[in-house]
Amino acid sequence: MAKAPLSQLSLSPSSLSRRTLLRGVLAGASVSIGLPLLEIMLDQHGEALADGEPLPVRFVSWFFGNGVKLSRFVPAAEGPGYPLSDELKPFASVSDYVSVLTGFNNHCAANNKITHHEGMVIFNGFNNRDVGAGQGFFSNAGGPTIDQVIANLPSVSAKTPIKSTQIGISKRPSQVDFGTTMHALSHAGYLMPLPPEYSPQAIYKTLFDSFSPPEDPMKPHRIAALDIVRENAKKLALRLGALDKQRLEAHLGNVAELEKKILALPPPCTKPDAPLTTNVDVDGKEPLVAVNDAMSELLVYAFKCDITRVASVLFAEGAGNTIYADLGLPGAHHDYTHDGNDATQNGAVHDGVVYTMQRLAYLCERLKNEPDGVDGNMLDNTIVFASSDCAEGISHSVDMQPMIVVGRGGGKLVPGTHFASKTGENPTDVLVTILQCFDPAATSVGKDEPGSNKAFAPLKLV
């Protein structure tokens, strides 16, 4: 069968559009692959795109349930170059990008507190609504979360084909918490939760649309179309310098490696008529590390190709039933955090927090290892905001609720510093700061008690 003609690349003599795609078409099956950020797409200084637009800045909200062990989480000193605490040691390789904010008190209303739910206010700055209006512990998120506020900015939403993506890792929800607040990290607004997707296969299909069911008659054509994409890449390579050629080759290699890595996650799908899925228990245990790593790879690749600039990651629900079986712990982490025994708190609880931080650190390391621009990396142009639903599970308190901010935000944030509030400042001040990295004219986030109309100035560079 003769191959269809290659799609034509329209190139100016000295630049290449950030939106250029490599395309292949064969027998009606099409494949499009975005390009990494190449030098030919940048201005002469390598500090902006060739059309004058700044390099893209990305945002990730990252949630882990049941808080930390404060005595082993809070760094012993403030300022830049702070010593990593026991529970922050997983960030050793990216510590110069990791700012830790402690001593902040969640300003949710007193009548909003039903344990765990109120802590989620740290991601939106709105009191929860309908508290106690349904079965069990019940509430609905009161407004849009910061990721959706950013995603809906015209300067962000108009730039990518996918406005935002919602990722989940552990599939073990709480059985006693109801409403929208606890089961989705991302919300477009009141009664508008954006549930996470727990399957790397489904996320891959959503972002890249490159998977086909085993019985799909078009699959051979899709594979052949990828060959055409490679030929198209060879044509593009004639226009590139040596470094850009290396980046292009590595980029295409990463596509194949990523696909193989996801397909290798246990257990494989054996039913030819079933959707491919990977986040399935193995011997009754969640493959948390494998799924977390695969999701991180997918997210970095999506950022690299500017498919999306905003994401949320719900690692493990607050009050959920996630078991860290990799640590040899048979019980749910939530249950351990509510055990007042010192041995449990300094054993199972502490180990669980370290395990969680290792998963977050993996994403941060992948972002740091991904080149962005000429001399930078993706953490230079990304903000990761991570927090939990309480300070410590044993107390359910939202006072001293910890926050982690990773990345330079396009050179707008102070990286690698420990900020310790002495006055119980509002965490939503930090959300205002982050929002201003994407919209300098932004003045507020949230509403009522937890809302804020001022930025946390020490975190801002510009």
Account of the 3D structure:
The chain contains 10 helices and 16 strands. Residues 1-13, 210-221 and 262-277 have low confidence and may be disordered. Helix 4 packs parallel to helix 7 and helix 7 (288-304) packs parallel to helix 9. The protein has 2 domains: 18-53 and 225-275, no CATH class; 57-211 and 282-459, Alkaline Phosphatase, subunit A. It is an alpha/beta fold and 462 residues long. An 8-stranded mixed beta sheet has the order 4-16-5-15-14-3-11-7. The protein has a two-stranded antiparallel sheet with strand order 1-2. The protein has a two-stranded parallel sheet with strand order 6-8. It starts with 20 loop residues before the first strand and ends in a 24-residue tail after the last helix. The chain has helices at residues 70-73, 146-151, 154-157, 200-208, 219-237, 242-263, 288-304, 333-337, 342-369, 428-438; strands at 21-26, 29-34, 58-64, 79-80, 98-102, 137-138, 165-168, 177-178, 186-189, 192-194, 310-316, 371-372, 376-377, 382-387, 403-406, 417-420.
CATH topology of the largest domain: Alkaline Phosphatase, subunit A
Structural class: alpha/beta
Broad CATH class of the largest domain: Alpha Beta
**Mean pLDDT over the full residue set:** 85
Total number of helices: 10
Strand content: 5-15%
Order of strands, widest sheet: 4-16-5-15-14-3-11-7
Overall, the morphology is: globular
Secondary-structure map:
Elements lengths: L20 E6 L2 E6 L23 E7 L5 H4 L5 E2 L17 E5 L34 E2 L7 H6 L2 H4 L7 E4 L8 E2 L7 E4 L2 E3 L5 H9 L10 H19 L4 H22 L24 H17 L5 E7 L16 H5 L4 H28 L1 E2 L3 E2 L4 E6 L15 E4 L10 E4 L7 H11 L24
Parallel strand pairs: 3-11, 3-14, 5-16, 6-8, 7-11
Antiparallel strand pairs: 1-2, 4-16, 5-15, 9-10, 12-13, 14-15
Helix pairs in contact: 4-7, 7-9
